[in-house]
Amino acid sequence: MKALHFQLYFFIFIFAFVFTVCGCQDSTSVNGGKNDSEVVLRDYLLSEDETWEPEKTYIVQGTFEVLPNVVLEILPGTVVKFGRDAHLNVRGILKIGTPLVFGAFSEPVHLTSNSINPRIGDWHGIQFDHTHDSESFLRGTVIEYATVALDIKTTSPTVADCTFRYNETAVALDGSTAKIQHNAIHDNDIGISTVGRQTRPRIERNNIIKNDTGIFCENVQSIVQNNNFENNNFALKLNVKFDFGIPNNWWGTSVNEVIDKTILDSNDANIITKPLGTVNYEPIAETRFDGAGPRE
């Protein structure tokens, strides 16, 4: 009888241990960081509205997903760090930084790599996943070290007063009428990529500087004006057979021969591998736009 009781207690102990160790694990978890001011989120599904505050540092591991009809708000001054290959997938509404109704933004939000020695492409970036949403915005935000910092698919957020640096692609627009205005876009492989011909995103008053390619264009309906293109390897690469009008921008010079060398289009028959349209960049802005870039 004692042996039977011992076996029963042993079985109960093993069952409880296995349940505690394995049964309580979940694909969605919030784990405490090194201290109370650090929040670690691993493969997290956000199912109700939430606000992230500057008093805490948020570390995202894996996939953080904002579900439909849910709002994630990240207040000015907040720091969010992303682990290797982590990304933020938005199927709801994302509000980052100072609201657009305020005249000037306050402290910037930082979205960056969690690596001690960060590099381009450390984390995947933010993807707006076909939400058809126009309420989302990013303002006064620094985004760096991502593969595609903002991947905007059939969503139309406003992106203003932000800094994009050290990304493979800073902003990718696919089927979007987003407003990309007053941003500093520098030291990326590609500054802005546009695809889809049925929408008209507005790319205005940005400083697009020191990128390998400033704009990679497959959407010739895009409105691109009053920007400063300076010190890019290519200011613009056209990748479709349709012509593209891009007037009233500053190219670092007003000399056509110099500007032509920074644009890839039908005039570059010696290096292109498929038929391309022609970029018409005239009239050229007479001087640099001092009011372009983030407003402080």
Relevant terms:
single chain; 296 residues; mainly beta; 18-stranded mixed sheet; 8-stranded parallel sheet; 2 helices; 9% helix; elongated; disordered N terminus
* Rounded mean pLDDT score: 90
SS-derived structural category: mainly beta
Binned, the helix content reads under 10%
- Rg, rounded, reads 24 Å
Order of helices and strands: HEEEEEEEEEEEEEEEEEEEEEEEEEEHEE
The best one-word shape is elongated
What's the total number of strands? Answer: 28
Main sheet characteristics: 18 strands, mixed
Care to describe what's here?
- By secondary structure, the chain is mainly beta.
- It has one domain.
- It contains 2 helices and 28 strands.
- The protein has helices spanning 2-23, 256-260; strands spanning 29-32, 38-46, 50-52, 57-66, 71-74, 79-82, 87-90, 93-97, 109-113, 125-129, 137-139, 141-144, 148-153, 158-160, 163-165, 169-174, 179-181, 184-186, 190-195, 202-204, 207-209, 213-217, 223-225, 228-230, 234-238, 244-245, 263-264, 279-280.
- The strands form 3 sheets. The chain has an 18-stranded mixed sheet that branches. The chain has an 8-stranded parallel sheet with strand order 3-5-8-11-14-17-20-23, with no helix packed on it.
- The longest helix is centred in the first third of the chain and has 22 residues, at 2-23.
- The protein is elongated, with a radius of gyration of 24 Å.
- The termini are far apart.
